[in-house]
Amino acid sequence: MAELPIAAVDRIIRKAGGQRVSESAAEELADVLEEKGLELAREAVELTEHAGRKTVRDEDIRLAMRKTE
């Protein structure tokens, strides 16, 4: 089970235009988002280490996002 709050994921689906959202749909999206988020975070950490830093910055996340597309 994902660590993301189901209520927050529900709101994301509603912002995308969903009128009604089943709990299982919100849970599934939370799992997918967590999986993709971990992939993105791992790439950002690699970029951070390559730059000789310990702190992951917003630009590391953006660059990782471009690399994983």
TrEMBL record:
> Is Chloroplast given among the entry's keywords?
no
- The record's principal subcellular location, in a coarse class, is cytoplasm
Write out the GO cellular component annotations: chromosome; cytoplasm
- UniProt subcellular location: Chromosome; Cytoplasm
Alphabetically ordered keywords of this record = Chromosome, Cytoplasm, DNA-binding
- Give the protein name, as stated in the record: Histone
> What region holds the Transcription factor CBF/NF-Y/archaeal histone domain?
2-65
